[in-house]
Queue: 3 jobs
Job 1
Amino acid sequence: MRLRQVEPLSSYASRRPRLVALMRVGIGIWLLVAGAILYGSGYWWGVLMAAPAALHFYLAYRLRHSVGVSAGTALCRLGQACGVAAAENAHAGAAAVSPIQRSLRTQGA
């Protein structure tokens, strides 16, 4: 039996990984607090809320580390113009030149 490959991230999660990871951490904290309140009130099944909380923490960790730390690494991972920005910076005579600085240099300011 052959399984289909499934897209691991939704388009929203791949566009905004920090926000989705932060939301998952918030949901995980909420589940832990709600579980602690329930367990403290005598409902033993409140402890079971730790499992979904751990799942949210794990997914936030995986999302954060699978997408990449910065937009530059994400662009290089997609195979888009990794060498172009480095060549432009080397041509400008600086190791790292922002687009604003580059535009100011070309305008003569």
Job 2
Amino acid sequence: MSLPTFAWPRGLHPLSNLTRLTALSLRGCRKLTNQAVEALRPLQQLRQLCLCGVARLSDRGLGGLAALGALTQLELGHTRVKVG
């Protein structure tokens, strides 16, 4: 599932009801913030997540993703996340 390159006024909360979602691309959603990404916590079956080009995402925003136990693929290119 891919989303348009805008952010909803309420962030990603509308996605939190899609609990069976296994793959999600937020590529290029430049207006998303660390706080918005934390709304993905309920997506416990999510295996693949692309956050490439989410320019406002930093290390701080990854804390919320730690709850995604099924996550096996995470793409973070062109973000402020420091790898290593």
Job 3
Amino acid sequence: MEENLFEIIKDFSREKGLDHEVVIKLVEESLIQAAQRKLPYREIEGNIDENSGKINLFHFIQNYDERKKMKRYKEYKKNILI
């Protein structure tokens, strides 16, 4: 059976007697910080999918609305492929 990252973190937390939610949050924050150092994006969000164990990182894109000729920006989340 193939274990995902989420399950590995839960097992590690159980062995060390730590709250798995805290450890997961710390790992997610560490991944975001590493991505911010290596990628040219300002705002990055991320999480670990509980079901698949997949790491999801997103950055925000501001898009100028030409139709309204106003300085209104729309923010979009875009998945970062690692």
